[in-house]
Amino acid sequence: MESKFEKQIEEKPEDKKSKNFGSIWGDITLFLKKMLDIRNDTDKNRTIEDVKDNISMQGHTAWILIFSILIASIGLNVSSTAVVIGAMLISPLMGPILGVGLSIGINDIDTLRKSLVNLGFMVGLSLLTSFLFFSFPLFQEPTAEILARTAPDVRDVFIAIAGGLALIVAISRRSKQTNTIAGVAIATALMPPLCTAGYGLAVGSLKYFFGAMFLFTINTIFIALAAFLIVKFLRFPMVKYINSAKRKRIAQLATLVAIVIFSYSVFQFYQLFQRDQFTQKAHNFIEVMKGEGISIIDEDDENISYENNSIKLVLYGKTLNESEIKEWEARLVEYGLPSTTLNLQQGVDDSDLRAEVQNLTDLYARNQQIITSRDEKIRQSEDKIKVLEAELNKYYKVPFSQLSKEIKINYDGLKSLKYSNLISTNFESTDTISVFTTSWYDSIPNKDLKETNLKRFLKTRLDIENIRVIRE
To answer: What is the reported pTM?
Structure first.
């Protein structure tokens, strides 16, 4: 009888491969779990305390909010992105929003009530501050930074969700990451929409006000929703109540609020997604029309109405007849706009006028080319003149008038003095020699010595080596 220690069981190659694969997959799973798991490094109690501490908007925090709103309003007014970013880093707006998400996640009705009250106070104070700032006519010019906060799209939803998740994860760590918190404050951009809403109230534009408030609402809801999801995922401790019936009611209320917020968030996301899809399809349709020779002006997004399911275009140039208009209306189906109304506004046919304008434009362009060519020739001629002047200066660089006066003072017996340039060559190189011709009075002795001294004087005075002094 074989001993169990001596008995060998042959393993099939398939079994070995299966075990090896299972081991590798287990190692990969363990590695990914270790890398991505956030539960081990979470300080739940401290996170709850930190969020609750930043909910209140009283005292110093309220004044910080006022000043940050003023800074953001100034940044929007001057279209300075750097100033707006600085204001977002100062702003304490994130506290009550995280408080809403946390309190719903742990069934803390008192914290939820406090968060909502402070959130409402925060919004009201921000709107009042920005309204007062933009009430001055000097600051009511609609800048690009302001207009960029009046119409949210689906990308703002993704930013708010990702930012909220990053923020609550960063806060829940045992070691806080302040750079992450600052980055989320910038990315989610809660302050600029509130300032823009105050601008809309100041200038009497409900469109700007509701558009900016819609963007702020989206950011607020999805940040709170992200906090709620992470709190639930990390299984933060629930608030316990002595009265079990009260605890049950609070849990039901918190669940109801969570469902309402989640449902409204999904609805908002769907509406924004549908709006963006409609706008993109409308732009594609307009580009096709332009590509087929139809001249379109005033193709702003304001003329693309998702609410009315219509596209309004103003045409110029050649007018379209009824059959052509119906053909374009029928082609809306090809671009995913089956029930969209195409409203084309066109004037009289001004093709002849446009052709004349084009002819004048072409004539002007040709004249400009001629003028440019002429200017280039003039410039080239001026450059040649400068080169020739430089060459002449090489030959006539002796200040003869001044020099003759100095020589007359130093050499009394000199009757006359002549100057010329002598160009000589040995057929290998060419050289220029400055020649001075002297004429002396007969009574002057030692003329050779005087000419030698004169030659030495001229070399020193003119800094010219090739000088020849000859007697007439």
So the answer is: 0.54
